């Protein structure tokens, strides 16, 4: 695939840095090609000073919207023609910036919902491992309702003691087998509630939870977003997930 000269992917990252690097690696791996020239032109703005999205949603920290808007403008001025945000929780703030960026934003959570909907009518229940901010904002609940998919969540103790503990470990760079065990236990409880697939709904989670640690399909939103971007470039048109 020869990347069109008109399309430049802008990655609004830093939430966190390891997840941003992981997303770019997945974008490269997803892009078909046999040479450098077959890959996509990409601009990455990784700003780890963006305030914590979960704290903002819980009322415990500053609103990250100005940082997200500034980062989007940096990408636009650098030549980006479309924006990807490899942070699930940040999508709670997308409606606040979408009309001011001047570029389409490919909506990662919307793409995941479409992917699950396309998995067939047999998939009626999905589990979600995500930040407390993503859960409280109802981001996945709202999208999956459109496809008639029920969402199951960890209980309060599992959310705090397993999921958030694991996410913090990945962000700190101190994740290990203990981190995987925490996420595996949380995923197993979702499966016991009927989950036929588990969404790794925080871009740190796939770094601590390998696919083979879960007994049902583990859905990685970063991979889904990467595929949507590649499809956009190949077809020359925005996917349905663009805002």
TrEMBL record:
Annotated keywords: Isomerase
Coiled coil: none
Residue stretches spanning the membrane: none
Taxonomic superkingdom: Bacteria
Protein family membership: Belongs to the aspartate/glutamate racemases family.
Protein name, entry field: Aspartate racemase
Organism listed in the record: Streptomyces longisporus
């Amino acid at each position: 695939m020869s990347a069109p000269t008109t399309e430049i992917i802008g990655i609004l990252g830093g939430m966190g840095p390891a997840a941003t690097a992981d997303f770019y690696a997945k974008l490269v791996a997803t892009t078909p090609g046999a040479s450098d020239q077959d890959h996509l032109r990409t601009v990455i703005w990784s700003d780890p000073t963006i305030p914590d999205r979960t704290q903002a949603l819980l009322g415990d920290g500053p609103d990250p919207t100005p940082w997200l808007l500034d980062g989007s403008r940096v990408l636009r001025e650098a030549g980006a023609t479309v924006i990807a945000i490899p942070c699930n929780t940040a999508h709670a703030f997308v409606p606040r910036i979408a009309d001011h960026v001047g570029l389409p934003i490919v909506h990662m959570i919307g793409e995941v919902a479409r992917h699950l909907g396309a998995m067939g009518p047999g998939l009626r229940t999905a589990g979600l491992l995500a930040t407390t901010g993503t859960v409280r904002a109802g981001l996945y609940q709202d999208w999956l309702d459109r496809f008639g998919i029920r969402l199951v969540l960890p209980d309060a103790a599992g959310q705090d003691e397993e999921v958030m503990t694991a996410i913090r470990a990945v962000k700190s760079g101190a994740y290990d087998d203990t981190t995987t065990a925490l996420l595996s236990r949380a995923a197993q409880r979702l499966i016991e509630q009927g989950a036929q697939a588990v969404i790794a709904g925080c871009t740190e989670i796939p770094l601590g939870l390998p696919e083979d640690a879960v007994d049902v399909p583990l859905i990685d939103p970063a991979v889904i977003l990467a595929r949507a971007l590649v499809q956009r470039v190949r077809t020359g048109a925005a996917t349905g997930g663009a805002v």
